[in-house]
């Protein structure tokens, strides 16, 4: 019986002939192009990768040593170029699949033509084992190269987008067309903008920022959404729509993980800028440890953001306005006061809203006025603002004692 090792050595030597190499490259490259529609400028690189893979494979025909860690240069370049053409990982995998199928067909043909005194089964197993190991290793390394290049391209694009938007927000002149182009074609004029800033309250929440904003934007019919990644624990976004008034449901967001502030709606380039600035300003309130709200609109906390510029003075104002009502354990009284001051309904309706008897409402009002030292109607606007500040920055969550 013919020695398998000797036959393989002769096979590898023969296959290195110029004619044999050219035939192999042509047939395998054709199989790839039949299976995958690639841009013309990648065809030569495919042929180079096929040839280099084949020569490297032949180098290891008689060796049991694992393939070298380095991917053949043309295959490395091919993975990079596929990423740069934005063709996607499935295209790269299809190339290898087509080449592997062509290689297997070739191996079956070689075994079939081998001399009769050779162990055909053993030769077929050898080809199968060696080729599978080779392709698995090459695919794994090509995917790693592709992924690294894709990440690099994304980071570069994110950086360029952030630099343009940051320059605009800082007061530099940026053309509308340049801004729109950097934002991936996001409309700037003829629409109104909502600006959102999502902040991860802990490192584990970073990956939830984009899904959280996307979920909010999905509730706005016809909205366009664009992200800017400034780094750190933040993600910026703009929702643009031709509808002037927009609402965003808070949904199931966990305020201990993610806080989102919203500015706008505002129109045009100026609105693009001002909405973001308002969302930033709203963070003075939204990121307070005492707050338990996941989505904060600037328009709902405008006065509080001004108070937050001077917390010591604001706290003195709050303590003076609330008096004893600001002591721990009076959350039900504060809630009742807020409901009464913000409701135009009669006592019965207020009681139903609070799920208590109307006499309970009267009793709580009497208690609150005793703690305040004055009627609720006295400086009612300041009282509501003090309640807002207390809940946003001072509330320790203490429950009523009775």
Automatic annotation (TrEMBL):
Residues 333-385 form the PucR C-terminal helix-turn-helix domain. It comes from the Bacteria. Residues 21-161 form the RsbT co-antagonist protein RsbRD N-terminal domain. InterPro entries: CdaR-like_regulators, PucR_C-HTH_dom, PucR_C-HTH_sf, RsbRD_N_dom. This is Helix-turn-helix domain-containing protein. The lineage of its organism: Bacteria, Bacillati, Actinomycetota, Actinomycetes, Mycobacteriales.
